[in-house]
């Protein structure tokens, strides 16, 4: 369960370089972006032409000695034409840009997910799932705004400013120069708000991801929360996180409203100034009335793109923060990767001989969990692993599947070090059935073949029959096509186990690791599961992490772990006769050991 103190410290810096690192994802769509640029130029030209056309109408056809109705009609028609061209160009560029932006984001999201999938288990040990969910969903969404809104604003509004300034200087250089006085003021306001805005956005994003992380963990552990009556405590913790997010959000919004209002005031002051200065110029006949009209329109237009660009400041800030967070995940190199030249295997030829030689391992430096572990398992043997809780049983199996790597020693399968195999091959050779059966949203069939389309319906049926799951599946409303929800919550614990056994038979690994279920099943289901287990174990090397000694009484060899060391090994009778730890466990309350 997440604790509020566990919330990540709020980051202080995120730069353009994080966004820059995501730019290569836009490369395949560069032509779409170029086309957007062309359309933006057309749209801007249409906007800048409009006040100029009105100025021409006023000065040449209205405020003149020879007013011309015909001239006015022509200008009105041109005006409508220019507006239509502008609207069409604007529509096309918006659609095109959204399309390109969403494509970029799809690629980033996909590569982020694939990158996370390749990570070793240690990566997941040190990260809250909810935070990763935020990275893949919200952060990519935020970055998408950089490729759409920000990019568009930078080009459209930036160009717009340049074109308006150009048009002003064309009309009257002196008044245009007066207008330029506002530019340093704009910079001053921006500088004043920049740091505040950035900090506000970063804080909101981080607090949102804290809320998400808390939610994900609590939803996953809801059963435990309810059993231990922690609903209220967790609600209070959630309320605190929620409140801190609300505060950050309100603060962010307030800062951004102040920023925008400051610009609005400046815009109106500029219009008043132009009316005063320009009006005087008209009265002194220095400029024509139409020119004043055009200046007033241009100064208003000038503030639109500036306002829009400053609004995009928010987008830029949040995109940089999001890109930074995505970058942090992408920068983590998978701790365990395939060697350049992996051993080429034909699965059928693998015999399933497993050997641990002087294996020493700890999850954290200086904290050894396994010390100098040595054992050999011959092909086809049935092996039991026992020991008190925390003795290191699961850790041995995590090393064999290469979820972690040992600090010392070697682990081999058929005499070949496991790191010489590709991880894909290794996981085809070694299968694992865990206590906590992972079922996914999909049909029973999908879950047995784990979405691998190359596994035929025939194989799925056969696998289910072998472990005795076929009768249970036949009882379900749609048989193999029955949809499973919420990790298989519509099945009993025993049924979930049987489906996971069928899955492993369909995979057909040479070595099978079985973390025996501790959940108590009714005797009939237990018998069913036991039969299923025997069927799965046939014809392959099987290693059972046993919590009940009865399961492994007939094992070919039993490994007894104590505080990370292999203290005994032998058959049940040898170990009982020896009178050591195993014999003590065996004598203890019948047959129960472990958690
Ligand atoms: N991912 C992890 N990160 C850090 N320490 C871990 C991790 N997994 C296990 N440990 C620690 O390693 C030690 C051995 O744990 P392991 O799960 O291998 O024991 P186990 O014998 O399988 O226990 P159990 O029967 O309770 O499942 C324990 O002290 C445990 O706290």
Description:
By secondary structure, the chain is α/β, with parallel strands linked by helices. It folds into 2 domains: 4-330, ABC transporter type 1, transmembrane domain (ABC transporter transmembrane region fold); 347-587, P-loop containing nucleotide triphosphate hydrolases (Rossmann fold, 3-Layer(aba) Sandwich), CATH 3.40.50. The chain is 61% helix and 10% strand. It contains 19 helices and 12 strands. The protein has helices spanning 16-22, 30-62, 69-117, 121-125, 129-171, 173-179, 182-220, 222-227, 231-283, 289-330, 393-400, 423-429, 444-449, 457-466, 470-475, 493-507, 523-537, 572-578, 581-587, and strands at residues 354-361, 370-377, 382-387, 408-413, 416-417, 430-433, 442-443, 483-484, 511-515, 541-545, 557-562, 565-570. It has a 6-stranded mixed beta sheet with strand order 6-9-10-3-11-12, sandwiched between helices. Strands 2-1-4-5 form a 4-stranded antiparallel beta sheet, covered by helices on one side. A hairpin with a 2-residue loop joins strand 4 and strand 5. The longest helix is centred in the middle third of the chain and has 53 residues, at 231-283. Mean pLDDT is 84; it is low at 1-12 and 591-595. Adenosine-5'-triphosphate is lined by residues 125, 363, 369, 387, 389-395, 594-595. Residues 34-318 form the ABC transmembrane type-1 domain. Pfam families: ABC_membrane, ABC_tran. It is a multi-pass membrane protein. Its main location: membrane. It comes from Alicyclobacillus fastidiosus.
